[in-house]
Design a protein that fits this description.
The complex is a heterodimer of chains A (545) and B (269). Chain A is mainly α and 545 residues long. In chain A, 62% of the residues lie in helices and 6% in strands. Chain A is built from 20 helices and 10 strands. In chain A, the strands form 5 sheets. In chain A, strands 1-5 form a two-stranded antiparallel sheet. In chain A, strand 9 and strand 10 form a beta hairpin. In chain A, helix 15 packs antiparallel against helix 17. The longest helix of chain A is centred in the last third of the chain and has 40 residues. The radius of gyration of chain A is 29 Å and the shape is globular. The N terminus of chain A is likely disordered. Among the domains of chain B are: 82 residues, Cytochrome Bc1 Complex, Chain D, domain 2 (Orthogonal Bundle); 86 residues, Cytochrome c-like domain (Cytochrome Bc1 Complex, Chain D, domain 2). In chain B, strands 1-2 form a two-stranded antiparallel sheet. In chain B, a hairpin with a 5-residue loop joins strand 1 and strand 2. Chain B starts with a helix and ends in an 8-residue tail after the last helix. The interface between A and B is large, with 76 and 63 residues.
């Protein structure tokens, strides 16, 4: 496209400044090939693909504000007397950690706003990861080749939980101190090793004088360091695998249809960062979070009602609140089942989610690569399983806030606890069945739409008096989108007799797998999608209404 | 005298002597016993008791019995004192609307004068804590920070850090202390209404009570300033989490939908 007039002076004259800088950098960093390969990287467009961005940006905001907070926070449990500007704490004995947090809130310029941005961003970060994870789950984006990235994301969520926990424990206020005590109780409930771990972590008996400094290192260095590495790995893998996309015309398992990273997504993502920052700053500007001045300094002899952890630990809190306080005493040892059982369930419950991609690929025997996302309705069993998991999680969140639920809905706390105990087992089953039925219903609806078209809302009266509603046929694109999904057949137990007529032994796992596979893809679990013949027959004209 | 001695073996003689002896000791006791409130018959106090008794008969006797002795529906009021009446009736808890896990506070239907009359009547049934005077619960000479420490030690277990209330077993609850008259807080500590333990002066001195009231006034009254913005009910992480999910993440997702809907135009042309 270039003209001769353009070419001639360029070759002799001085290159533009930008080009010279790029050239200089390329000579030293070799970025040209990297940039060339990735600048035009294509990403598909869908709002749900931006949930991960919300997490990434809130994580960056947390790091930025966290750095500011470290400038003023003293991670020390030395006892001091408060003489700052918050009157209701004047003359109170407190740890230096608590005092410096009060100072950040009242005497450091912008301190309270930054503290609140930091804390709100953490709450939103974890909530964002939860929703992002659900998006990936329900669309089947975790399937090969993305299982490892799913694990990276899962680890980020779990590490985020513990980074959050160590973070809100740092101010050494009465609420977080109660939470640390709770955690110590959970550690102590572990048979044999519990006492040792507790003594090691707290440098002796609880609370000791060490844990704030130790949690500080863990909170600002160890966990965020690992998380940062995982985030980078997570993003590199997104680049390497390329982004998944929803089915549609022109979209195949081998391409990505969308916009290039540069300039479109660079601009969009850059703008979106500031939008997310803005939302979090507004939230932090109007709503108070963790008002430690009202909560008071931690003292092991004090406790308040309504002592909950931040929401992402609420599930664990709920498990402990719902579990009856059983314990076993033998040979002078106590096994505190009331705390240990919830601890085990907590681990298993999370592990099930982490391992789900591997479980599904084993059950279905599907080892192929997938870059086209499933609509949740087209994978009814997976969707139902996910909803059941979320239901159990939410019921335990209610359990974690059982006292607040009781007072605000004028219920008995005992009734709420019993609801949670029963609901934890019954709720997921009901959710599973109901979700599966809804998915199948939606599949039937899709089939109906494909074969009979869209309801137009136009009522026509035929010459002989009959009323019919006119259905408009779908466009070719819509037909493609609604029928693009693959329908699988259940994996069967292979031939039990080999070519020589010798019967082989069928293993138990094989039978289990066949059964589960039947549950996933059997006749009960999917509505056969319309075939071309069916479509032709119906649209050929005769008897259509 | 003959007549009297002639009847000394009468079957009822012993009874007459007994009655005379009782009347004699009773009379002597009445003459020498320390003066009680009921002594001066024509004072305002006794008028208040009379009026209170009438109010009591109408509004309270069906559950607490005609003489305040209590029934299966309501406890005895002998010895609860004027402070208990002033609290229960002054916050609208009594007369109760219906039996239940706990009697909630509601609209006050008696005037303060009537409450005082009821209190005088109940106080006349047996000695108990009196209605505190204003200097006992006023803000003068109170140490707010000390009050905070005492509140967290003695009250926060049920009433939350700053007195926002909390749940107790089987539908009972510790109510929110927001906007509660300092006098009523003082009386509640003294008398231990409903499910609350009482904190008599031997447990929590008058100064301690004053401090606690001053602390609550500083952190949980209408003119308390929340430095961080909306307090979200002051309930801690449950309401914060809900707010973060709905308004924090909700707004972020809304923005994401908005950004995604505004895609580059090049595709269409």
């Amino acid at each position: 496209m270039s003209t001769a007039a353009n070419d001639a002076p360029r070759s002799r004259g001085k290159a533009p400044a930008g080009e010279r800088v790029a050239d200089w950098a390329d000579g030293r960093l070799g970025i040209y090939s990297l940039a060339k390969a990735n600048m035009r990287k294509i990403f598909p467009d869908h709002w749900s693909f931006m949930l991960g961005e919300v997490c990434l940006y809130s994580f960056i905001i947390i790091i930025l504000t966290g750095v500011y907070l470290t400038l003023f926070f003293h991670p020390s449990m030395n006892e001091v007397t408060y003489h700052g500007s918050y009157v209701p704490m004047q003359g109170q004995l407190m740890s230096e950690a608590y005092k410096s947090t009060l100072d950040i809130s009242f005497d450091v310029r912008g301190g309270l706003l930054i503290r609140q941005i930091h804390h709100w961003a953490a709450i939103i970060f974890l909530a964002g990861m939860f929703v992002h994870m659900m998006r990936v789950f329900f669309t089947g984006a975790f399937r090969k080749p993305r299982e490892i990235n799913w694990l990276f994301g899962f680890l980020l969520f779990v590490l985020g939980m513990f980074t959050g926990f160590t973070g809100y424990s740092l101010p050494d206020d009465l609420l977080s101190g109660t939470g640390v005590r709770f955690t110590q109780g959970a550690i102590l409930s572990m048979p044999i090793v519990g006492t040792y771990i507790s003594m090691f972590l707290f440098g002796g008996e609880f609370p000791g004088t060490d844990f704030v400094a130790r949690f500080y290192s863990i909170h600002i260095l160890l966990l965020p360091g690992i998380m940062l590495g995982l985030v980078v790995g997570h993003l590199i893998l997104v680049f390497y695998h390329k982004h998944t996309q929803f089915a549609g015309p022109g979209k195949t398992n081998k391409n990505v249809v969308g916009m290039p990273l540069l300039p479109v997504y660079m601009a969009k993502a850059g703008g979106f960062f500031f939008l997310v920052f803005g939302v979090i700053a507004i939230v932090a500007g109007i709503a108070s979070v963790n008002p430690i001045w009202a909560i008071g300094p931690y003292r092991p002899d004090q406790v308040s009602t309504g002592a909950q952890p931040d929401w992402y630990m609420g599930f664990a809190e709920g498990l402990v609140r719902a579990m009856p306080g059983w314990e076993i005493n033998f040979w002078g040892h106590t096994l505190v089942l009331g705390v240990f059982v919830p601890l085990v369930i907590f681990g298993i419950f999370l592990a099930v989610l982490a391992l789900y991609p591997f479980i599904e690929s084993w059950v279905t025997g599907d080892k192929r690569e997938h870059h086209i996302l499933d609509r949740p309705r087209n994978a009814p069993t997976r969707t139902a399983f996910g909803v059941a998991w979320v239901t159990a999680y939410m019921i335990m969140l209610i359990g974690g806030g059982n006292d607040i639920v009781a007072t605000h809905f004028h219920l008995s706390i005992n009734a709420v606890t019993w609801f949670v105990r029963i609901g934890f087992f019954v709720g997921p089953v009901i959710a599973f069945v109901v979700t599966k039925r809804i998915c199948l219903g939606l599949q039937r609806r899709d089939k109906d739409k494909v074969l009979h078209g869209r309801e137009s809302g136009i009522i026509k009266r035929l010459p002989h008096g009959e009323f019919i509603e006119v259905h408009e046929p779908l466009s070719q694109e819509q037909l493609h989108t609604l029928t693009a999904h693959e329908q699988y057949k259940p994996a069967e137990i292979g031939p039990t007799v080999d070519e020589n007529g010798v019967e082989r032994k069928v293993k138990g796992t094989e039978k289990l797998r066949a059964k589960l596979s039947e549950a996933y893809y059997g006749e009960e679990s999917q509505i056969p999608k319309p075939t071309v013949e069916e479509y032709k027959e119906i649209t050929s004209g005769h008897g259509h209404h | 005298m003959k007549k009297l001695s002639a009847r000394r073996r009468h079957p009822l003689a012993a009874l007459v002597v007994l009655l005379l002896a009782l009347a004699c000791t009773g009379g002597l006791y009445a003459a020498f016993a320390p003066a009680s409130k009921a002594q001066a018959d024509e004072t305002a106090q006794s008028l208040a008791i009379d009026e209170g008794k009438k109010l009591y008969a109408v509004g309270c006797a069906s559950c607490h019995g005609t003489g305040g002795q209590g029934t299966t529906d309501g406890p005895s009021l002998v010895g609860v004192g004027a402070a208990a009446v002033d609290f229960q009736v002054g916050t609208g808890r009594m007369p109760a609307q219906q039996p239940g896990a706990q009697v909630p506070k509601k609209k006050v239907i008696y005037s303060q004068a009537e409450i005082d009359q009821l209190a005088a009547y109940i106080a006349s049934l047996g000695a108990g804590p009196a209605i505190p005077s204003e200097e006992k619960y006023g803000p003068e000479g109170a140490d707010i920070a000390k009050g905070g420490e005492l509140f967290r030690t003695n009250c926060a277990q049920c009433h939350n850090f700053t007195g926002k209330g909390g749940a107790l077993t089987h539908g009972k609850y510790a109510p929110s202390l927001e906007g509660v008259d300092p006098k009523h807080i003082y009386e509640a500590m003294q008398t231990g209404p409903q499910n609350m333990p009482s904190f008599p002066d031997t447990t929590l001195s008058e100064q301690n009570k004053k401090d606690i009231i001053a602390y609550l006034d500083a952190v949980n009254s209408d003119d308390t300033v929340d430095p961080g913005g909306l307090s979200l009910g002051g309930l801690g992480p449950v309401s914060e989490g809900l707010f973060g999910w709905i308004f924090g993440l909700g707004a972020c997702i809304a923005v994401a939908v908005w950004v995604a809907a505004r895609t580059a135009k090049a595709k269409k042309s």
